[in-house]
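Obj.: predict assembly geometry.
Materials: sequence records (below).
Method: joint structure prediction, all chains together.
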Amino acid sequence: MTALIFLIFAGIAVFCGVNLVVQTHPIASALSLIGVMGSLAVLYLQLGGEFIAAAQVIVYAGAIMVLFVFVIMLLNAGAETPTFQVSRFVKYLGAILLAFFLGLISFIIQGALPKSEGVLFGTFQGTALDVGRKLFTTYLLPFEVTSVLILIAIVGAIVLARKEV
Amino acid sequence: MVPNAPVPLSWYLILSAILFALGVAGFIFRRNIITVFMSIELMLNAVNLSFVTFSYQFKQVDGHIYSFFVMVVAAAEAAVGLAIILTVFKNRATLMIDEVNSMKY
Amino acid sequence: MNLWLIPILPLLGFLANGLFGRRMPKALINTFAVGSVLLSFAWVVKTLFGLSPIESKYIEHYFTWIQSGMLNIGVDFAVDRLTAVMLMIVTGVGLLIHIYAVGYMEHEGGYYRFFAYLNLFMFFMLVLVLAQNYLLLFVGWEGVGLCSYLLIGFYFTEQFATTAGNKAFIVNRIGDFGFSLAVFLIVRQFGTLDFSKVFDAAKGMPSEPSIGILTIITLLLLVGATGKSAQIPLYVWLPDAMAGPTPVSALIHAATMVTAGVYMTARSATLFLKAPVTMDTVAVIGLATAFFAATIGLAQMDIKKVFAYSTVSQLGYMFLGVGVGAFSAGIWHLMTHAFFKALLFLGAGAVIHGLHGEQDLRQMGGLFKHMKITAITLFCASLAISGFPFTSGFFSKDAILVAAYERAPWMYWIGVLTAGMTAFYVFRAWFMAFTGEYRGHAHPHESPLVMTGPLMILAILSLVGGFINVPHILEPMFVEKAENQSLAWLSAGVGILGILLAYVFYVAKRGLADSFAKAFGGLYTLVYNKYFVDEAYDAAVVEPLLEGSRTVLWRGIDAGLIDGTVNGVGKRSRGIGSILRLIQSGNIRSYAAWVVLGSIVLLIAIGFAGGLR
Amino acid sequence: MNFFILSLIKVALVAFVLLTTLAYLQWIERKVIAHVQLRVGPYRVGPHGLLQPLADVVKLITKEGLIPSHVNKLFYLMAPFVAVTLALISISVIPFGPEIKIGPVTTWMQLTDLRIGILFVIAVSSIGVYGVALGGWASNNKYSLLGGLRSSAQMISYELPLALAVAAPLLLANTLSFREMVNYQSGYWLGFIPRWNLFPEILGFIVFMIAGFAETNRVPFDLPEAENELVAGFHTEYSSMNFAAFFMAEYANMVTVTAVATLLFLGGWQPPFPAPYSDVIPILVFALGGLVALYHGLNPARRMDKFTLPATALVFLGIAAIFGLSLFVAPLKPILMALFWFCGKVLVLLFVFIWVRATLPRFRYDQLMRFAWIGLFPLAMFNLLATSLIVALTTK
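Observations (raw structure tokens):
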């Protein structure tokens, strides 16, 4: 069951990833990115990351990507016109090269990782309780620092995007 | 591969590598600033996946916390990045990276 | 018995004059300067009488100066018979010279400065004499070197004075270098510098037939001594030191400082006895210096130069004495020499004072009727130095010559010949200055009592000094040599022969000296120009040093190497910078490509470095 | 009865009930607004307009769905689809009743229970924005673009106070799943006051409701599809089925919000009074309803009332009888009781939604945004701080 779900959503993720790179219109690539995030959320659930899956959906898909969609809508950016026409041959060559490269990487990773046991849904549950407890004990300082970071980002964004009065 | 058999951990990492490679490709080959920005977000997502995978391997929640912080940072980065893109658009009326090259030597 | 009072008094004198001298009237400066030396002399007398039969060494420890690891050097003074003799000489003669200087420096500039330096010198000399370990002795040693430099260069407005000062200081430094190496070796060998500890340990060691550790130490000590006491290789500074005022020459370059080398050798007698090789070298150097300096003295025209070379020669005698093992004889001669040489210099000073700065013998003559007291006192000194029977010189010089004969007969004969020459050049100077008619054009006048007083006292001392039987006093420390009357009279005879010759040359047949000079033309000019030793040193050492530092060090290394590298780095980085600048193409995608390329290279590097498991 | 079949049955049951309620919600809303405005509302199609929703559905389906040419076709069609699916997904997590036994099978009156149920609902609602945003952008005209932007901006801004308001009861119940949340709210203080989160979290409840209005673009905040200013907001270009989809999405969102509100604050299916007394109330309510209908039926105001009103009275009395009967039939009682209380609370809250739509005027856009960031957000933050302070002090 887990493998089936993994295959489905990994396929979706890869498809959306390729779509993001290939699509000319930014809104299309934005939505394909949301597709990637959604499928990753499911994979997180499989890997036992409940809280992270929810956070991924809420924060990433729900907030950051909305920002992107907003900016794309506001700027009404048209489709990208490919300036240099890459010959068909180069495209295929590129694809083959990419495939080979990915094969190499997967071989290396396969070799590198110890023959660990497979992933079964439910064997490890990183519940919100554990994440919360650890977040506010061992990782309290990074938590506070990131909150300051966000504050800075907010102020920065406002100052940058404000219309000159 | 009986659908119910456990999925070897390395597959998740391979997926993460593939997504990361796609992100890098987008980052290099696309000309629209927003698309470049989005491929960076894709790379960050790939990293998050490997974080969660490793947290599963070590049965600890630290991986989740790291990916949580990655998300937070990505949010901050997105906010400021998009603000910059807006200002660039306001001043240069273009989103094509190549036209924004006044920082020449 | 707080011995520390002896050196501290002159130091207080120095501080008083040095700090407030400018605003003090001459009288007050005198009281401070002479007073402090007088009190010091009185305190020496009191302590010596207090200790009276100084059988063993009386040591006083004040504080620990250096405490590092096993080395423990304390500031402690000691008095034994040898120190007693030296103290008497230094403070006694010093006092007389101070009194004389009051008169001599009457109308010279920088009055307070002169007396401040003089007092400082007294302080350092006393520290040197009283020291109970080599390091404290070395402090005194350096101090006197400094003061001699300051006093030689007293007339610092004159070029020749300052160069003479530099020369003295540098040559002394060379000697001091040898001395400090010796001190280091002593520390390495004995682990301490304290005299009593070192000598006890040395007694236990076997005497070294050939070159051993002790021989090396003593040789290095000898180098220090030759530097300080102006022996053969390092004597060149003493004749030039005459550039300083005469009391300085008298005190420092006759009576006290130059004898420091001899005193140090005597003090470390136990070390020297263990190293026969060094003893021979000391003797040979002493004898060579004596003979060599005497020959130069014959042809000098400047009165102070004559006496300077005579000092070098007499010091040679002392080293000969020490070298052949007659330490007490050497010290004896040191004492008597202090008396008559100080007298000679002070007399010369009186003459120069009278002629208002004229030092050339050819401009003098017939001064007897103008300066009777100076003439007579100088006559006594001349008798003493040439070893006239029953004068102080006679006893001490013959003691050395007798000991030399025991060691090696040929030494005795050269010594006697030198004694003859000494007698000749001293009386030559006396006759040229005081007999015949006055050749100069200043009108000479007798010096005031404050100057002639010390002259008279010294004259008495140089005549009677011989009867203070120093070898008998130093008997417990050094074995006493047997007396040999026949040899003594033989050398006295040669001395008298020298005097007669001088009389014949310069009084009876006045022209004879010049004709002789012409006869031995080449030899005469050689001797007159001091065998061109100074010129040789210049050529051999000074010039190459200066030239080397100018071309090699300054141009070669400093300009070429260091500046070169510094500027080179600057140019190189600018070059690299201009290349790197090209990367900033402004094209974000090229940046992205560089970023990716960099990370890939990094990954590969980590892969290989870390090694994929 | 393996897991699949059981969940399929449950899904079918819930889907049917939900879709019919969505349709009749439309009817209830029009009748209530009408009666508030002293008019009659739909009564022609079927008795008292009961068949009106059916008529609307038929109309929308049969109408020709024209797709304007200047529209970005793919996203134009995708937008309503996204809006509806996301609105309906969150119903799967909502529990209607406790564990029940029907014959051999014991199951929960709930499709599934996620340990992060509440987070799931929030996540789905946060993605709901895309339906509206894409709809506005895809129809490619100024008004719909502006409408789309404004409504998505509004939904994002109100999502924050909503999340904070939801966080408050979480602190009390210390759990993220609805089931445990409802169990936490069982029991009674002093015998008769129910332990609902409502009482300690009254402020949280108010903020949640207001944010709920905004989240579903309901009246005070329904500027984007306000007819007079922006024509129809983001769904101006949409016709027939797509338009119906957006409408259905809106009502589904409303149901979801009210259901979550009841679960978090009003104790889900927990009766307000202890067991023996609370069992009587459903019977009384339906009996009373039936008698009122009977009384009006006897002296009818309108011609048809003679027949319709007695019929409704008969239905109501029948239900009352069923409730009475269930008291004695053991397995049936928990189901009916739970359903009655849960649906009762949801209907009450829906009535509030509709009631507010009928009475309150519309916010201007800048007032709306300022109210969110300056009014609601600080209030929610304060409420959260207060709750966490109390929780920190009380628990050891």
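Conclusions so far: The interface with chain C takes residues 108, 111-112 of chain A (CB under 8 Å).
To do: check interface contacts against the pulldown list.
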